[in-house]
Amino acid sequence: MLGRWVAWWAVVTLFLWGVTLLMSGPESFADCARGAAVIIVVGECVDRLRRRRLKRRAATTGR
Description:
Number of strands: 0
Radius of gyration: 17 Å
Distance between the termini: 28 Å
Number of helices: 2
Shape: elongated
Structural class: mainly alpha
Strand content: under 5%
């Protein structure tokens, strides 16, 4: 599971860094890496909440 997060982090970091280079010039790679980490952590938290809500809904409706 950690390998999947590291792979996503690397992809998102490179994407953010590339976009900032194209739009505003040289941006710190470390800033892009931190931003990518925040995006991934928030996304994982939201996904867990969504799954928990679906599980509760399925339990209350009997599906």
